[in-house]
Amino acid sequence: MHYAMGEALDLAREATDAGEVPVGALVLDADGRIIGRGRNRREVDGDPLAHAEVMAMRDAAQSRKNAWNLADCTLVVTLEPCPMCAGAALQTHIGRIVFGAWDAKLGACGSVWDIPRDPHVGARPEVIGGVREPECADLLAKFFAVKR
What we know:
Radius of gyration: 14 Å
Number of helices: 5
Largest sheet: 5 strands, mixed
Number of strands: 5
Helix content: 25-40%
Distance between the termini: 32 Å
Shape: globular
Structural class: alpha/beta
Strand order of the largest sheet: 2-1-3-4-5
Order of helices and strands: HEEHHEHEEH
């Protein structure tokens, strides 16, 4: 996961260069191959739903010829998914969610909420947080320091 998070960090840096909040995401297939890539595109696309995770899961589904079920896949993202993205991951039946920095404001995979492990939800992906956390958190902190 260390290498995959490095790839997601590269996508997050691309988001920064485009004026977006630096979040990058990948979807890996069961063999660890990247089948989906995404970065935040809300500002660029004028789309409030264009979060990195959603973009990566859409890309993965398209790479599988619109096979939306990603049960054998891993979502790797630089920031803990928000409620929308955690819900989207559940809708794809993603098998594992791996993230870097925790999100104390909108995190929905263990910090503020824990949507993937909610007992009322059918799918229960494995969740692993804190992968390369210092690098992921630092990228976000630097971005917001300039913005504020």
